[in-house]
Specification:
14 helices, 8 strands, 8-stranded mixed sheet, alpha/beta
Length: 290
Protein backbone atom coordinates (compact mmCIF):
# COMPACT_ATOMS: atom_id res chain seq x y z
CA UNK A 1 0.00 0.00 0.00
CA UNK A 2 1.48 3.33 -1.10
CA UNK A 3 1.09 6.37 1.13
CA UNK A 4 1.24 9.94 -0.12
CA UNK A 5 3.18 12.31 2.14
CA UNK A 6 1.72 15.79 2.51
CA UNK A 7 2.35 18.99 4.43
CA UNK A 8 -0.92 20.62 5.41
CA UNK A 9 -1.40 24.06 7.05
CA UNK A 10 -3.56 23.65 10.17
CA UNK A 11 -2.99 26.86 12.16
CA UNK A 12 -1.17 30.16 11.91
CA UNK A 13 2.37 29.27 10.86
CA UNK A 14 1.93 25.56 11.65
CA UNK A 15 1.90 22.73 9.13
CA UNK A 16 1.50 19.04 9.89
CA UNK A 17 3.18 16.27 7.96
CA UNK A 18 0.77 13.44 7.17
CA UNK A 19 0.88 10.11 5.34
CA UNK A 20 -2.40 9.42 3.52
CA UNK A 21 -3.69 6.39 1.62
CA UNK A 22 -6.81 4.45 0.72
CA UNK A 23 -10.39 5.44 0.06
CA UNK A 24 -13.63 5.16 1.98
CA UNK A 25 -14.70 6.51 5.35
CA UNK A 26 -11.81 8.43 6.96
CA UNK A 27 -9.77 7.21 9.93
CA UNK A 28 -7.14 9.44 11.55
CA UNK A 29 -4.38 7.68 13.51
CA UNK A 30 -2.33 9.66 16.07
CA UNK A 31 1.06 8.42 17.29
CA UNK A 32 2.52 8.40 20.78
CA UNK A 33 5.85 9.03 22.52
CA UNK A 34 8.66 8.71 21.55
CA UNK A 35 7.42 7.94 18.07
CA UNK A 36 6.08 9.35 14.81
CA UNK A 37 3.37 8.37 12.33
CA UNK A 38 5.58 5.36 11.48
CA UNK A 39 4.20 3.46 14.48
CA UNK A 40 0.97 2.93 12.50
CA UNK A 41 2.70 1.42 9.45
CA UNK A 42 1.12 -2.06 9.81
CA UNK A 43 -2.32 -1.01 11.04
CA UNK A 44 -2.58 1.80 8.50
CA UNK A 45 -1.80 -0.53 5.59
CA UNK A 46 -4.51 -2.92 6.82
CA UNK A 47 -7.19 -0.23 7.25
CA UNK A 48 -6.35 1.50 3.95
CA UNK A 49 -7.83 -1.47 2.11
CA UNK A 50 -11.27 0.03 2.72
CA UNK A 51 -10.79 3.36 4.49
CA UNK A 52 -9.07 6.66 3.85
CA UNK A 53 -6.27 6.54 6.42
CA UNK A 54 -4.56 9.72 7.62
CA UNK A 55 -1.45 9.39 9.79
CA UNK A 56 -0.04 12.76 10.87
CA UNK A 57 2.96 13.63 12.94
CA UNK A 58 1.57 15.62 15.85
CA UNK A 59 2.52 19.27 16.30
CA UNK A 60 6.01 19.24 17.81
CA UNK A 61 6.90 15.74 16.60
CA UNK A 62 8.42 14.06 13.56
CA UNK A 63 8.34 16.10 10.37
CA UNK A 64 5.55 18.42 11.55
CA UNK A 65 6.24 21.99 12.61
CA UNK A 66 7.53 22.64 16.13
CA UNK A 67 6.54 26.16 17.15
CA UNK A 68 8.20 27.62 20.21
CA UNK A 69 6.01 27.34 23.30
CA UNK A 70 5.14 31.00 23.80
CA UNK A 71 2.43 30.16 26.33
CA UNK A 72 0.60 27.21 27.87
CA UNK A 73 -1.77 26.94 24.89
CA UNK A 74 0.91 26.20 22.29
CA UNK A 75 1.04 22.49 23.13
CA UNK A 76 -2.23 22.07 24.99
CA UNK A 77 -4.19 19.03 23.86
CA UNK A 78 -6.95 21.48 22.91
CA UNK A 79 -4.62 23.16 20.42
CA UNK A 80 -3.25 19.85 19.14
CA UNK A 81 -6.78 18.48 18.75
CA UNK A 82 -7.77 21.56 16.76
CA UNK A 83 -4.78 20.83 14.49
CA UNK A 84 -6.15 17.35 13.80
CA UNK A 85 -9.67 18.60 13.03
CA UNK A 86 -8.21 21.26 10.71
CA UNK A 87 -6.05 18.61 8.99
CA UNK A 88 -9.02 16.35 8.32
CA UNK A 89 -11.10 19.27 7.08
CA UNK A 90 -8.31 20.42 4.75
CA UNK A 91 -8.29 16.92 3.27
CA UNK A 92 -12.04 17.08 2.70
CA UNK A 93 -13.38 15.29 5.79
CA UNK A 94 -15.77 17.08 8.15
CA UNK A 95 -16.37 13.84 10.10
CA UNK A 96 -13.89 11.08 10.80
CA UNK A 97 -12.99 8.26 13.16
CA UNK A 98 -10.01 8.92 15.42
CA UNK A 99 -7.57 6.58 17.14
CA UNK A 100 -4.61 7.60 19.26
CA UNK A 101 -1.80 5.89 21.10
CA UNK A 102 -0.18 7.33 24.23
CA UNK A 103 0.18 11.13 23.68
CA UNK A 104 -1.91 10.83 20.55
CA UNK A 105 -4.68 9.24 22.61
CA UNK A 106 -4.77 12.29 24.88
CA UNK A 107 -5.12 14.48 21.80
CA UNK A 108 -7.85 12.15 20.49
CA UNK A 109 -9.82 12.36 23.75
CA UNK A 110 -9.61 16.15 23.73
CA UNK A 111 -10.78 16.18 20.10
CA UNK A 112 -13.72 13.99 21.05
CA UNK A 113 -14.69 16.31 23.90
CA UNK A 114 -14.15 19.57 22.01
CA UNK A 115 -15.38 18.47 18.56
CA UNK A 116 -18.08 15.82 19.06
CA UNK A 117 -19.72 16.68 15.73
CA UNK A 118 -16.47 15.84 13.91
CA UNK A 119 -15.34 12.65 15.67
CA UNK A 120 -17.60 9.69 14.84
CA UNK A 121 -15.69 6.96 16.70
CA UNK A 122 -12.80 7.13 19.18
CA UNK A 123 -10.08 4.68 20.19
CA UNK A 124 -7.44 5.10 22.89
CA UNK A 125 -4.38 2.86 23.17
CA UNK A 126 -2.72 2.40 26.57
CA UNK A 127 -3.27 5.61 28.51
CA UNK A 128 -5.69 7.06 31.01
CA UNK A 129 -7.29 10.49 30.54
CA UNK A 130 -4.93 13.17 31.85
CA UNK A 131 -6.91 13.97 35.00
CA UNK A 132 -7.07 10.30 36.01
CA UNK A 133 -3.44 9.64 35.08
CA UNK A 134 -2.20 12.09 37.70
CA UNK A 135 -4.73 10.92 40.28
CA UNK A 136 -3.55 7.28 40.20
CA UNK A 137 0.16 8.11 40.60
CA UNK A 138 1.05 7.48 44.25
CA UNK A 139 4.18 6.61 46.21
CA UNK A 140 7.06 4.52 44.92
CA UNK A 141 4.90 2.81 42.29
CA UNK A 142 4.63 6.17 40.55
CA UNK A 143 8.33 5.91 39.63
CA UNK A 144 7.16 4.14 36.47
CA UNK A 145 6.10 7.60 35.32
CA UNK A 146 9.23 9.52 36.33
CA UNK A 147 9.37 11.18 32.91
CA UNK A 148 5.99 12.80 33.56
CA UNK A 149 7.37 14.56 36.63
CA UNK A 150 10.65 15.48 34.94
CA UNK A 151 8.96 17.14 31.97
CA UNK A 152 6.42 18.89 34.21
CA UNK A 153 9.19 21.11 35.61
CA UNK A 154 9.55 24.75 34.50
CA UNK A 155 11.35 25.41 31.19
CA UNK A 156 15.11 25.04 31.21
CA UNK A 157 16.44 22.12 33.21
CA UNK A 158 14.33 19.28 31.72
CA UNK A 159 15.22 20.32 28.18
CA UNK A 160 18.94 20.50 28.99
CA UNK A 161 18.99 17.20 30.84
CA UNK A 162 17.17 15.32 28.07
CA UNK A 163 19.15 16.93 25.25
CA UNK A 164 22.37 15.93 27.02
CA UNK A 165 21.53 12.24 26.63
CA UNK A 166 18.68 12.26 24.12
CA UNK A 167 19.21 8.85 22.52
CA UNK A 168 19.63 7.20 25.91
CA UNK A 169 16.54 8.93 27.29
CA UNK A 170 14.19 8.16 24.41
CA UNK A 171 15.71 4.75 23.79
CA UNK A 172 15.07 3.81 27.43
CA UNK A 173 11.31 3.96 26.84
CA UNK A 174 11.50 2.10 23.54
CA UNK A 175 13.27 -0.71 25.40
CA UNK A 176 11.32 -0.65 28.67
CA UNK A 177 7.85 -0.57 27.15
CA UNK A 178 8.36 -3.22 24.45
CA UNK A 179 7.67 -6.88 25.14
CA UNK A 180 8.91 -7.90 21.68
CA UNK A 181 11.99 -5.87 20.65
CA UNK A 182 11.72 -7.22 17.08
CA UNK A 183 8.50 -5.22 16.70
CA UNK A 184 10.60 -2.05 16.41
CA UNK A 185 13.37 -2.95 13.93
CA UNK A 186 16.68 -1.01 13.91
CA UNK A 187 15.74 1.33 11.05
CA UNK A 188 12.45 2.31 12.70
CA UNK A 189 14.12 2.70 16.07
CA UNK A 190 16.76 4.95 14.49
CA UNK A 191 14.00 7.06 12.90
CA UNK A 192 12.25 7.46 16.26
CA UNK A 193 15.45 8.46 18.01
CA UNK A 194 16.41 10.98 15.34
CA UNK A 195 12.95 12.53 15.32
CA UNK A 196 12.87 12.78 19.12
CA UNK A 197 16.42 14.09 19.38
CA UNK A 198 15.42 16.91 17.04
CA UNK A 199 12.26 17.77 19.00
CA UNK A 200 13.28 17.90 22.67
CA UNK A 201 11.83 21.37 23.47
CA UNK A 202 8.46 20.65 21.84
CA UNK A 203 8.15 17.16 23.34
CA UNK A 204 8.83 18.59 26.79
CA UNK A 205 6.31 21.37 26.13
CA UNK A 206 3.70 18.77 25.21
CA UNK A 207 4.26 16.92 28.49
CA UNK A 208 4.42 20.15 30.51
CA UNK A 209 0.99 21.11 29.17
CA UNK A 210 -0.40 17.88 30.60
CA UNK A 211 0.70 18.95 34.08
CA UNK A 212 -1.02 22.32 33.70
CA UNK A 213 -3.47 23.59 31.14
CA UNK A 214 -4.66 20.13 30.06
CA UNK A 215 -5.67 19.41 33.65
CA UNK A 216 -7.61 22.68 33.75
CA UNK A 217 -9.52 21.64 30.63
CA UNK A 218 -10.24 18.15 31.99
CA UNK A 219 -11.45 19.53 35.33
CA UNK A 220 -13.78 21.95 33.56
CA UNK A 221 -15.26 19.12 31.51
CA UNK A 222 -15.66 16.90 34.55
CA UNK A 223 -17.41 19.71 36.46
CA UNK A 224 -19.72 20.36 33.50
CA UNK A 225 -20.52 16.66 33.08
CA UNK A 226 -19.16 16.53 29.52
CA UNK A 227 -18.40 13.06 28.18
CA UNK A 228 -17.40 11.38 24.94
CA UNK A 229 -20.63 10.91 23.02
CA UNK A 230 -19.28 8.61 20.32
CA UNK A 231 -18.62 4.85 20.46
CA UNK A 232 -15.27 4.44 22.22
CA UNK A 233 -12.79 1.58 22.46
CA UNK A 234 -9.88 1.49 24.90
CA UNK A 235 -7.05 -1.03 24.50
CA UNK A 236 -4.92 -1.14 27.62
CA UNK A 237 -2.30 -3.10 29.50
CA UNK A 238 -3.30 -3.90 33.07
CA UNK A 239 -1.61 -0.91 34.69
CA UNK A 240 -4.34 -1.00 37.32
CA UNK A 241 -2.90 -4.16 38.85
CA UNK A 242 0.38 -2.30 39.51
CA UNK A 243 -1.00 1.06 40.57
CA UNK A 244 -4.25 -0.05 42.19
CA UNK A 245 -7.04 1.35 40.04
CA UNK A 246 -9.92 0.10 37.89
CA UNK A 247 -9.08 1.37 34.41
CA UNK A 248 -12.43 0.42 32.87
CA UNK A 249 -14.33 2.29 35.59
CA UNK A 250 -12.17 5.40 35.14
CA UNK A 251 -12.73 5.34 31.40
CA UNK A 252 -16.46 4.69 31.68
CA UNK A 253 -16.88 7.96 33.57
CA UNK A 254 -15.65 9.72 30.42
CA UNK A 255 -17.05 7.36 27.76
CA UNK A 256 -20.47 5.83 28.50
CA UNK A 257 -20.47 3.89 25.20
CA UNK A 258 -17.25 2.04 26.06
CA UNK A 259 -15.58 -1.19 24.99
CA UNK A 260 -12.56 -1.75 27.26
CA UNK A 261 -10.11 -4.41 26.06
CA UNK A 262 -7.19 -5.60 28.24
CA UNK A 263 -4.17 -6.65 26.15
CA UNK A 264 -1.14 -8.80 26.92
CA UNK A 265 1.29 -7.24 24.43
CA UNK A 266 3.53 -4.33 25.37
CA UNK A 267 2.83 -0.63 25.26
CA UNK A 268 3.66 -0.33 21.56
CA UNK A 269 0.74 -2.57 20.65
CA UNK A 270 0.19 -1.25 17.13
CA UNK A 271 3.64 -2.61 16.31
CA UNK A 272 3.66 -5.67 18.58
CA UNK A 273 0.17 -6.92 17.68
CA UNK A 274 -1.10 -4.95 14.67
CA UNK A 275 -3.69 -7.61 13.79
CA UNK A 276 -5.31 -7.19 17.22
CA UNK A 277 -5.33 -3.40 16.95
CA UNK A 278 -6.63 -3.34 13.37
CA UNK A 279 -9.32 -5.87 14.28
CA UNK A 280 -10.49 -3.85 17.27
CA UNK A 281 -10.56 -0.67 15.20
CA UNK A 282 -12.71 -2.42 12.61
CA UNK A 283 -15.09 -3.57 15.37
CA UNK A 284 -15.24 0.01 16.64
CA UNK A 285 -16.03 1.38 13.20
CA UNK A 286 -18.94 -1.03 12.88
CA UNK A 287 -20.63 0.27 16.04
CA UNK A 288 -23.51 2.71 15.94
CA UNK A 289 -23.84 5.42 18.58
CA UNK A 290 -25.72 4.23 21.66
Amino acid sequence: MTFEHLRVPVADGVELHAAVSGSGSPVVLLHGFPQTHLMWRHVAADLAADHTVICPDLRGYGASDKPAATGPDTYSKRTMAADVVALARALGHERFALAGHDRGALVAVRAGLDHPAAVTHLASLDVLPTLDMWDVMHGVSASVGFHLYLMAQPPGLPERMIAGAADEFFGYFLDLWTNDPAAIPPDVRAAYLEASRNAVPSIVADYRASAGIDLDHDRADRAAGRTLRMPTTVLQQDWGAMLGFDAAALWRAWAPDLRHVPVSCGHFMAEEDPALVAGELRKLLSRRPA
